[in-house]
Amino acid sequence: MISAELIMSDNCEFDFSDVDCDFQTKFAKFYKVHNNDGNTSIIKVFKKEYCDFFSEHKYNLLKNIRSELMISILSINNKINNQYVEYEYFESMTLKEWLHSDCIITKSLLINVIKDMAEIIDKFHQNDLVHLDIVGNFLINTDGKIKLNDYDYVEELGGSKKGRVDLHSFFELVYRMILFVHKKKSTRTINIKFNDTNIDHSSCKKFISSLDLQ
């Protein structure tokens, strides 16, 4: 399929009728766009039945989180029949692709990746937001730089315990990553002790400190 490479106009209006999308899901189609300033971005165009997934309110909440560990939202358009979100372009792969790739994953690199994952999750929670869909939405490049992606299900915490969803997903994801890497390196397995009844915002650090990666 030919990559959809469009020139962004000043008012961020697009016509996608005559181009092929790079990728699509149940909810949206994705286009790779070259901007007038020479930069590249990704446009996520929601299908009509899912246009209420990304509101102006959610966009404003996410703008308050300033971190290199998340894919930045550059603009949104909520006009009828032309609703889309523009994201920064990050040359990367999924965590699963990274683990199965030829990239050299050292102990220190793995720990740094895990710490970055924990940091951005904590950052969301500190800003009273919960992601709710982190599994499959961490992107990583060949240098081990990781970013959290896709904010369709983001909600305000508002005193609820929904943050546990992110933390449980994080623990399971990290555990699987470590076991995979150690199996790949033919080294011994890891014993991780963690009491999930005490989950709080410091749990990510407790979890990391409990890892035995010798």
TrEMBL record:
Gene Ontology molecular functions: ATP binding; protein kinase activity
Transferase as UniProt keyword: yes
Ranges in a coiled coil: none
Domain of life (superkingdom): Bacteria
InterPro entries: Kinase-like_dom_sf, Prot_kinase_dom
Domain Protein kinase: start-end pairs: 16-214
Gene3D superfamilies: Transferase(Phosphotransferase) domain 1 (1.10.510.10)
Pfam families: Pkinase
Keyword tags: Kinase, Transferase
Keyword Kinase included in the entry's annotation: yes
Name of the protein in question: Protein kinase family protein
Naturally occurring in which organism (per UniProt): Colwellia demingiae
